[in-house]
Amino acid sequence: xxxxxxxxxxxxxxxxxxxxxxxxxxxxxxxxxxxxxxxxxxxxxxxxxxxxxxxxxxxxxxxxxxxxxxxxxxxxxxxxxxxxxxxxxxxxxxxxxxxxxxxxxxxxxxx
Length: 111
Fold this sequence. Notes:
Elements: E1 2-10, E2 14-17, E3 23-32, E4 40-46, H1 48-57, E5 63-75, E6 78-90
Parallel strand pairs: 4-6
Antiparallel strand pairs: 1-3, 1-5, 2-3, 3-4, 5-6
């Protein structure tokens, strides 16, 4: 799935250790779209390399495209759904366009 929007908040880094003894880290961020309804998304970025890249290249106010998966886990008969961002990049809408150069044709010639 894919969505485009503005990063409105970066959540604090979460770190921990699995039962198998492996370290993990997760960052979260809020993305707001221009849609009228359902316009706020809370994404997770999981894994040390992805978290570092997210923090290095993104900040609040950036307009980004996010490719993500919807993931649901069950724990003790309760269900938890998360949006796992796996690709975040600057949106084409975020690029500024240079104004065309104005040419002075004061001599009356059309070229």
